[in-house]
Design goal:
The complex is a heterodimer of chains A (about 250) and B (about 250). Chain A is mainly α and about 250 residues long. Chain A contains eleven helices and no strands. Chain B starts with a helix and ends in a 5-residue tail after the last helix. The chains are: A mainly alpha (about 250), B mainly alpha (about 250).
């Protein structure tokens, strides 16, 4: 298993994944900062306002699109040249490959969140001169967002495994994010949590008071999100491994 | 010859699921616009001329297109171009007498006609839903069509840009990455002063085309920058033609 993960990291070494990891969250930060400056309304509630203005929109569409692009990038190499046939003739099990691809995609998603948090802190200190540092509750929320990205990474990895096209899984992600956002906007919360796109959007809203969120960061609510995320991840990884097992050379 | 190349592009689309991708765009814009119907007081104001329900409703697609179009247009263009990179289609076309630039122009005509249809459809569907919920005040034809035409021009310029980008850079990550970043620019552009909005074409032009603003005192008319959008269309078209001519002179690859 570790060998498969190491192999995936080697494949990523010369890819442009770093550009997505760096630019996507920074663009979210820049957008939030510019909108705040242009509106002339400083973040009245300090870090809370800044976090809300940056992270809520980021969680509606861009995060899903970013994870989808990263998953396409992770699988891209297998769809090129004769690599698919090499994959079919491997000794590594389908489950190991799917887990390794999902792990690497999820690790990149975690890096996205880390860059976002650093970006929010830098913007808060340098642009708005906010007191202290980002409150720990948002670090806890960030951990939940990273966990909520697991089923998204598993789903997008599975889609990128099935689709040769780089862009097609991203289109699916955008459609899924649209459905997830509409479910959250119309307060249909339970089904939205079972959809990885809705789950990740909901996780980014924790503590903000946006949409269906009550503004608190309560352990039971976080526990539900984490439990749903882990259960979905197991189901999606198992499903993808079964599908990969039934694939053949082409 | 040109007509047959365009027809061939439509044939290539059959397995590319271009129509479902565009359907996502139409459904997404219509769905987000429909959220206006759930706004407090909207359904009570459908026959109140002072509440200006049509302009209220128009605020929905004005934001939704900026949210949804940039990335989906990047996907439509990227998929139509990527097949040539994957299947060595550039070389095949050039040996068949169709230059790389000519192929890009044919792809623009084929995908552009569908994008135009999708843009008109989403606008018409939002209007139809407005009538369906019972808006009975006069339809602001000029304002609505003006916005639809502006979005059409911006969509086509964006499509042309992504066709060029996808053709030039085989790694589709670049085109899609630009699409994702463009979504941020488009949304930021909806809140920027017009002079800044002119600086980041074509994405920020979605903001320039917005005809109404929803404020605490009600729906306020804005002065959409239609002339700027026309200039964008003319300049975008000229740049697309110039660059595809440049592609024509490149060695077969």
């Amino acid at each position: 298993m570790m060998g498969a993960i190491r192999a995936e990291l080697v494949k990523l070494r010369r890819s442009l994944s770093w550009a997505v990891v760096l630019f996507l969250p920074l663009m979210a930060v820049v957008t939030g900062v510019v909108n705040t400056l242009v509106s002339g309304q400083p973040p009245g509630d300090g870090w809370h306002t800044l976090w809300m203005r940056i992270v809520v929109f980021y969680g509606l569409f861009p995060l899903a699109a970013g994870v989808a692009v990263l998953a396409s990038l992770v699988w891209r190499v297998e769809h090129r040249g004769g690599n698919w046939n090499a994959l079919m003739g491997r000794v590594t099990s389908s489950l190991d490959i799917v887990v390794a691809k999902t792990t690497v995609t999820a690790a990149l998603a975690a890096a996205l969140q880390a860059v976002l948090v650093v970006g929010v802190i830098v913007a808060g200190k340098l642009v708005f001169d906010l007191p202290g540092l980002l409150p720990p509750r948002y670090l806890a929320v960030s951990v939940v967002i990273v966990v909520a990205c697991l089923p998204l990474a598993a789903l997008q990895s599975g889609l990128s495994m099935l689709m040769r096209s780089f862009a097609a899984p991203v289109a699916v992600a955008l459609a899924g994010a649209t459905v997830g956002t509409l479910l959250l906007l119309t307060r249909v919360e339970a089904p939205s949590l079972l959809l990885p796109y809705g789950l990740v959007s909901r996780a980014t809203q924790v503590g903000t008071g946006a949409f269906a969120d009550d503004g608190s960061v309560a352990l039971p609510a976080l526990g539900v999100l984490v439990a749903v995320a882990l259960a979905l991840t197991v189901a999606l990884v198992a499903g993808a491994a079964v599908l990969l097992d039934r694939r053949d050379v082409r | 010859m040109t007509g047959r190349v365009v027809v061939a592009e439509f044939a290539k689309m059959r397995r590319l699921r271009t129509l479902p991708v565009l359907a996502v765009m139409v459904v997404g814009v219509v769905a987000f616009s429909s959220l206006t119907f759930t706004a407090p007081g909207f359904l009570d104001a459908v026959d109140d001329p002072d509440a200006r329900p049509w302009q209220w409703l128009l605020g929905g697609p004005a934001l939704a297109v900026a949210l949804i179009s940039p990335l989906l247009l990047a996907i439509v263009a990227g998929r139509q171009i990527d097949i040539e990179h994957q299947g060595n289609g550039w070389f095949l076309s050039q040996t068949s007498g169709v230059t790389a630039g000519g192929l890009c122009r044919a792809k623009f005509v084929a995908t552009g006609s569908l994008v135009a249809g999708a843009t008109l459809a989403q606008s018409a569907l939002v209007a139809a839903l407005g009538w369906a919920v019972g808006i009975s005040v006069d339809f602001p034809t000029g304002q609505w069509l003006g916005h639809t035409a502006s979005v059409l021009v911006i969509n086509l310029v964006l499509l042309a840009l992504h066709i060029l980008l996808s053709a030039r850079v085989p790694n589709q990550l670049v085109s899609l990455g630009v699409g994702v970043l463009g979504t941020f620019v488009a949304l930021t552009g909806t809140g920027l002063p017009p002079w800044i909005g002119h600086l980041l074409p074509p994405w920020s032009y979605y903001g320039l085309a917005i005809p109404v603003d929803l404020t605490e005192v009600g729906v306020v008319d804005l002065d959409p920058h239609h002339p700027s959008v026309i200039v964008l269309g003319v300049v975008g078209g000229a740049v697309f033609l110039a660059l595809t001519r440049l592609f024509d002179r490149q060695e077969a690859r």
